[in-house]
Amino acid sequence: MIQKSRYNSTLGTLTILTNENMLTHVSFGDVHPEIEAGNKDAIHQKIHVWFDLYFGGQQAVIDFPLNPAGTVFQQRVWEELMRIPYGTTISYRQMAQRLGDEKVIRAAATANGANPIAIVIPCHRVIGSDGSMTGYAGGVENKIKLLQLEGAMLF
Fold first, then answer.
1. Is pLDDT of 154 > 70?
2. pTM higher than 0.90, yes or no?
């Protein structure tokens, strides 16, 4: 059963969805109006504590299961995103190289953009090869704020 909660972050409202006690979505804004937000069950409480720590500037351990729905390739990209250390960035080219084929750079970028679990699966840590802040589903301004929060950007 899908459960929904909202988290009020420094970037605005985040919508959190779980299914079978696994995190499936974190979206910017108050989205999925078809699903009513309920009382926070144990998994939502853990996720909210994680966000409290994260937005408090702490590197938080993910102690809840993730279950993003996607293709096999998207899953590979999202797993690779989880390997990017807190407070660091990589380029889309580096992402493609980590996946074993520099030619998949566009496909990797598309999969990065399709990440359904914003912030927790840190797609914001991938930037352009020239250091540019490329698109981000939550907005480039929020991408910059997240990287600043993590200490990856000093401006």
1. no
2. yes
Alpha carbons within 13 angstroms on the beta-carbon side of residue 51 total 23
Close Cβ partners of 82 (under 8 Å, ≥ 6 residues apart): 121, 122
Would you call 118 a catalytic residue per the annotation? no
On whether residue 60 sits in a domain, the answer given is no
Q: Provide the token pair at 97.
A: 């190289």
Which of 23, 84, 90, 123 is the catalytic position? 123
The verdict on residue 87 lying in a domain is: yes
46/85 same-domain check: no
pLDDT class of 2 with cuts at 50, 70, 90: very high
CA 131 to chain CA centroid, nearest Å: 19
pLDDT, tens digit, for every residue of 105-143? 999 999 999 999 999 999 999 999 888 898 888 999 999
Q: Which residues contact 52 (CB under 8 A, 6 or more apart)?
A: none
86, 41: one domain: no
Q: Which domain holds residue 96?
A: 72-150
Q: What is the C-alpha to C-alpha distance for residues 118 and 121, in angstroms, rounded to an integer? A: 6
